[in-house]
Amino acid sequence: MTATLACHDRIAGEFDALWGCELHFAGDGAVDFIRTTITHPDNAHYILRLAKGTGVKGPNEPADVHRPVPDEEMHVPLDQLIYVGDGASDLPVFHLLNRHGGFALAVYKSEKARDWDNFSPVRPAQRVENLAPADFREGSELLRSLLLAVESIAKRVALRCLSVGE
Fold first, then answer.
1. 99 Rama sector, left if φ>0, alpha if ψ -120 to 50, beta otherwise
2. Residues with Cβ < 8 Å from 156, sequence gap 6 or more?
3. How many CB atoms lie within 10 A of CB 48?
């Protein structure tokens, strides 16, 4: 049996689709081997595929990720995406979202934001809106950041709707 780690989470049923590194499980349920990994550049490709609505599986994967799609035909416009990353593998997505007006947030697991200092120098295009502790509880800095990003996107969409047909 092959599955992503996220497929085994208790909230997996709340999502239409999940993707990530895939593991192969032996008959006794133990992890047998890693079947698929997602590399640093693959993160950005998967985000582009999500935004374009092309899915993550298919005969041309990942070649058709570069197929141009007009903004008005995007499944999820890039400026309406919020991405939360926890390490260097997320830098390409931070760059992608910064280029297209999306929201990039970074989290750290320990008590110190200095964990990010161990990564190679972050270019201005890879910067994030906020760096917060990986704490999703009510009132946390991360949850407040997410709520502000959602509010900002909603206001941007509402503003665009005002001008429809003009």
1. alpha
2. 79, 80
3. 21
Residues 1-40: pLDDT tens digits? 545 555 666 677 777 766 677 777 788 877 787 777 777 7
- The pLDDT, as a whole number, for residue 156 is 92
Torsional class of 96: left (φ above 0), alpha (ψ -120 to 50), beta (otherwise):
alpha
Calculated CA dihedral for residues 97, 117, 43, 1, nearest 10 degrees: -150
Alpha helices in the chain (DSSP H): 40-52, 91-100, 141-162
Question: Tokens 């007009």 label which residue?
Answer: 70
Residues 6+ apart with CB under 8 A from 130: 105, 106, 141, 142, 145
Q: What is the pTM of this model?
A: 0.74
Distance, in Å, from the CA atom of 6 to the CA atom of 139, rounded to the nearest integer, reads 25
Under DSSP, the state recorded for 58 is S
